[in-house]
Amino acid sequence: MVHLTFEVVRVMEPDFAKGCLAIDTNPDGVALCNVSASGQPEPWPEGFNIPYPGNLGKYEGEFQVIPYPNGFLYIRIPDLAHASSFRRSYLIGVLANKKFNRMASNFPFAKMVGSMYRRAVKEGVPFKLVSPRHTSTIGYWKYMKRYAVPVHCAAALVTGRRALGLRERVTIELRQLVSQIKQNLTRKVNPDRPGEGKKG
């Protein structure tokens, strides 16, 4: 008979009075955004730097930290991108079940996110889980050009705004853009030529 004893650690509730640090995970790294309490990106404090080991093994530049002055940061790991794309193509070539392929390709993300949450609990850092649904799409259309950052950083901003309880609204500019795209997609048919635009 085996007895296991463990201490249940209570997760602290986050206080968003000063904002939050939002994270977006990607196949080639992690995007971070320093979100203020009002939901806007806040510049990094003076003297802000990311400590990381100098020698990670294989080659120089294996681990890249790309800070943006307006409160965004991207930690890029090129080897991870190569490995995940190779693994994904291998799985797609070998396995036939789409549902299993999707689950297998998402496994590294779940493992990485789970390890971040375990570390946060261990260090006593409060966190809040939010749904990542459509964060990249919203970030692409609303924030990528405005803040001149990659789409992953914009998705991190959307994640932070969700954690703060803010709702994304469709702007007038975005409505105009969608209507313009719809107009470009529809074919203009000349009423003098019946059957124009039909395949056949």
Question: Could you say how many structural domains there are in total?
Answer: 1
Head-to-tail CA distance between termini: 76 Å
Quote the average pLDDT. Answer: 78
Helical proportion, percent range: 40-55%
* Strand order, largest beta sheet: 1-2-4-3
Report low-confidence residues grouped into runs of 5 or more. none
Strand portion = 5-15%
Q: SSE order in H/E notation?
A: EEEEHHHHHH
Shape estimate: globular
Total beta-strand segments:
4
Rg over alpha carbons = 22 Å
Number of helices: 6
**Secondary structure category:** alpha+beta
Q: Biggest β-sheet: count, sense, barrel?
A: 4 strands, antiparallel
Organism: Carboxydocella thermautotrophica
Protein name: Transposase
